[in-house]
């Protein structure tokens, strides 16, 4: 059956047949061809998959394989220029292969690098940033600094999918990689302990609902006031609402829900709390007000390291300086830099977060800096970016865009030069693209860092500090300042 549907290889005539052929002398017979499903892994792709080359010369990306390994694979997708495969058996393991700490590894799509030792993960992320910059002709004079925290129990927010199968069984968990299939999760090593402790109770709670199909997903958040649970509910159900309120009381969590299909409204099912999270400032911690739906970095420890790096890198330049913070969110960088002495104009696209940013600026105690002016602007629109740069005439620009990057801002900064630009990125590919615009426009890179925001994944955050040199030139990095 193993050969069913496959072309059988032609066999050279042996000159013998039957039992005589089986008993023939094979001491001088040619060696059998190498196994077609065994590959040598020579590299690691940006997304964490092993890279190999098949016997025919075609590139193969292998999930779960590490550089230096010899593995038996199964190809699950064939493309014109490359194939995609997964490991069936590791024949020769890498010395950097470790036992994944999570029992769901290999099924859950969340943490795809748990089989790689943590120091090697971080070296890989630094190499990815340098390689992508190099493709744009930009060379860093020294490796980027590393901003890293704990390897487990770091994630303070999570979104859990909910699905009811054909048998009526309710499932709760994360998606499998590259699919919509849900993997039931009852333990998670990367969630902060307060969130991980809710997984089993939530499984039991969902099983008790009368209308579980009306639940789209669940959001969990840890902040200064404890755990917040937000239920995405498609339609109201009075009995289940009471069940959720009883759950919140038993578990000691704050409870809200997004109710409705197309434009859901946020409703609190327990008394509405005043939620805050903390970031470092020159004079101590700063409390930032947040609400469900606001963007909040998942790793509080690494976020604090990034804010600290921004304060340190910009310390010589921000005292009484005009600073424009783009994609400012609720003030993650704006408020600490204002406390450091900058006169900050903070722009954000989301009206709700602009309102929260303004509230946070007003709530900052007197005497902790000149303050922050909050503005709402479409930062993907070139006209809006040009207007901001022209009206504020900043001496420092800080930008922390989403994955799409900030190409409009980078191009505008060529026409409106600024002495210094601090670019915080969650996607190294769009960062490299935008960095090329800046370097072509006369900027040079003077500091670089990689922040390991999502440990055990291929995702990385980066920080680049640019200095305007006054003359455009070919992309080329510059020696770091420190």
From TrEMBL:
Residues where S-adenosyl-L-methionine binds? 297, 327, 332, 348, 378, 400
A GO MF annotation of the entry reads:
4 iron, 4 sulfur cluster binding
Active site location:
426
**Protein species of origin:** Halomonas aestuarii
**What GO biological process terms does the UniProt entry carry, in alphabetical order?**
rRNA base methylation
Question: What PANTHER family does this protein map onto?
Answer: 23S RRNA (URACIL(1939)-C(5))-METHYLTRANSFERASE RLMD (PTHR11061:SF49), RNA M5U METHYLTRANSFERASE (PTHR11061)
Q: Which reaction does it catalyse?
A: uridine(1939) in 23S rRNA + S-adenosyl-L-methionine = 5-methyluridine(1939) in 23S rRNA + S-adenosyl-L-homocysteine + H(+)
Gene label? rlmD
The answer to whether keyword Methyltransferase applies is: yes
Q: Mind telling me which Gene3D superfamilies this protein's record contains?
A: 2.40.50.1070, Nucleic acid-binding proteins, Vaccinia Virus protein VP39
Q: Cite the TRAM domain residue spans from the record.
A: 30-89
Compositionally biased spans, kind Basic residues = 1-11
Name under which the protein is recorded = 23S rRNA (uracil(1939)-C(5))-methyltransferase RlmD
EC numbers on record: 2.1.1.190
